[in-house]
Amino acid sequence: MTWGNVASVRHSNVKVHVSNQKSNLPLPKSAQIEVTNKCNLRCQMCPLSDPDYRPPSKSLHLSLRDFKILLDRLPSTIETISLQGLGEPLLNRDLIEIIRYAHQQGKAVTFFTNSTLLTRDKAIQICRSGLSHLMFSLDGGTKQTFERIRQGADFDKVIANMRGMATVKEELGASTPTLGIMVVGMKENIHEIPLIIDIAHGMGVPSVTVKNLYPGEGIGGDPLTDEDIEYLAQTCAGHALSRGIRFSHPQHASLDNRKAERSCRWLWDATYVMANGFVTPCCFSYEGHFPNLKETPFEEIWNSGLHHDFREELLNGMPALCEECPAYSMKMVSHTPDA
Fold it and tell me: How far apart are CA 314 and CA 45, in angstroms?
């Protein structure tokens, strides 16, 4: 997922009464398209590591052919595409061609990777694909912490692969993709954020972003507290700026959105398409009965049925799915080095 390449919140069915009401909203400018729901790791904060988790569809990779069909059925207003879902995008053998096709259609394309499959040849292909932005998921600054959190990964190999990607980009003189590191912040790794900043600095990666872990059923790890956020804002931000690294982190550590200021714009600005073509109301709701883009015009999906009614419930109350959703109220703070 967009949230640090993991789905760090419990996925509940969207229990919204579907009416016959319709809206007439502007079409979205951003789309998240899941290119695979398979992953080669079992990270402690991901539902795929939960033995009780039941995926809403069989495991599959999105083919280039089906991607073209989905993109063709999305509105022309879409400007940016994140090729992200539950799985690791580099497992999809069609990924590079998917990026190229979307780029040729004038879209800005991004994705997250756990970097385990990022070979030199793949790095060259990525630099030549038209990809706009690539984020490395790195949840530890030491081998012990990282491998405990991201089970199945080799820290040394991941760091070498990340460094290799940065080196290839420099060798080719490529302006894209821009590179960044994403950290799922939790009690287990908060003390290693300065080490991760040092890793970014050593590779020439210009940004590090920390997102708070949001707990749920089957989710491992302890989320950050307000004291941890203060540590990020003071100690870690200063460390990053001293090394010329742009550093972003949550403004607060609240896990209860019921009294929080509402800042989620997903239902009005973006859409999420699963690898099987189903369109969900937001990036954290993909267990349920959803319309399929291959069968239903996008404008109808966007302005009626579940999407319309979920917006109404969000405006007038607190859907259960939103109570601990990181996108609902989490405002980010960015510290940018002087030019």
Answer: 26
How buried is 155 (Cβ within 10 angstroms: 0-12 exposed, 13-18 middle, 19+ buried)? middle
**Above 50 in pLDDT, residue 70?**
yes
- 301, amino acid identity: I
**pLDDT score of 140:** 98
Residue 135: strand, helix, or coil: strand
Q: How far apart, in whole angstroms, are the C-alpha atoms of residue 227 and residue 230?
A: 5
Mention every residue, 6+ apart, whose C-beta is less than 8 A from residue 333. 233, 248, 249, 250, 251
Beta pairing class for 332-335 and 246-250 = antiparallel
Q: By mean pLDDT, which of 49-58, 96-105, 215-224, 254-263 is the weakest? A: 49-58
| C-alpha span between 131 and 175 (Å, rounded) | 10
Residue 212 burial class via C-beta count within 10 angstroms: exposed 0-12, middle 13-18, buried 19 and up: buried
Strand partners, 31: 81, 271
What SS3 class is residue 270? Answer: strand
**Residue 337, preceding bond cis, omega within 30 degrees?**
no
**For residues 17 and 107, which has the higher predicted lDDT (pLDDT)?**
107
Portion of the chain with pLDDT greater than 70, in percent? 89
Q: Give CA–CA dist 202/35, Å, rounded.
A: 31
Residue 14: is its pLDDT beyond 80? Answer: no
More confident of the two residues 179 and 323 = 179
In degrees, to the nearest 5, what angle opens at C-alpha 67 toward C-alphas 64 and 72?
130
Residue 318: half-sphere exposure toward Cβ, Cα within 13 Å: 13
Q: Which residues contact 6 (CB under 8 A, 6 or more apart)?
A: 43, 45, 46, 137, 184
The predicted pLDDT at position 323 comes to 80
pLDDT higher than 70, residue 11: no
Enumerate the H helices of the chain as residue ranges.
Answer: 64-73, 95-104, 120-127, 143-149, 155-172, 193-203, 226-231, 237-242, 266-269, 298-303, 305-316, 326-329
